[in-house]
Design brief:
It is a single chain. This protein is an all-beta fold and 188 residues long. It has one helix and ten strands, in the order αββββββββββ. A hairpin with a 2-residue loop joins β2 and β3.
């Protein structure tokens, strides 16, 4: 049985990155994501989301996504959680190729693994496979690995690795990109 406060949950992520040197933009990208989840059973939820993104490094001027689908909890213990989901996505995309605006329907199939047994360490791994529903040769694979080590109760070290493969990238841009981030976090 679900408690009323456990039925609805919301997530908002806003990320903006700008690297400038000598009045030149070396890197400019932004990502906004809003997600709503409604629990149906302890092991089953429905999700809906909206997302916007732009990224100069991969030739993406704008990508807008709307999606919805089920989320299934495969495993839940005091130290681990494993989820999977299959979501339909509507995608509108503008790239550096001025002649092409992509409008597509995609699936977003994902597997999420969380490990949090240790008091001072947690690990989060999510893998997405996003094929075009008309042309299965047009797909993306995104893998995100995040780890956090707590140095003290308030100070932590964070490591992030994001690998993004696009079978049909913007013209003149690579299929595969890798992003590594290290950061210190402080909780007030």
């Amino acid at each position: 049985m679900l408690k009323n406060q456990d039925i609805h949950s919301y997530l908002f992520i806003n990320e903006f990155n700008l690297v400038r040197a000598n009045a030149n933009n070396l890197a400019l990208n932004s990502y906004q994501h809003l997600r709503y989840k409604r629990a149906i059973k302890p092991y089953l939820s429905g999700e809906a989301f909206g997302q916007t993104q732009f990224n100069e490094q991969i030739g993406l001027k704008f990508r807008g996504l709307l999606g919805a689908g089920p989320r299934l909890r495969l495993f839940y213990a005091d130290s681990m959680k494993i989820f999977t989901g299959a979501m339909w996505m509507y995608e509108y995309e503008k790239t550096t190729d001025e002649l092409v605006n992509n409008v597509k329907n995609r699936m977003s199939l994902y597997l999420s693994f969380l490990y949090f047994k240790e008091k001072h360490f947690n690990l989060d791994l999510v893998c997405y496979y996003q094929p075009d529903l008309i042309d299965f040769g047009d797909f993306r694979v995104l893998t995100e690995l995040k780890a956090e080590w707590y140095i003290t109760q308030k100070l932590s070290f964070r490591f992030g690795l994001i690998q993004n493969y696009n079978s049909l990238p913007a013209k003149g841009f690579p299929n595969n990109t890798l992003n590594v981030r290290n950061a210190f976090g402080y909780r007030f």
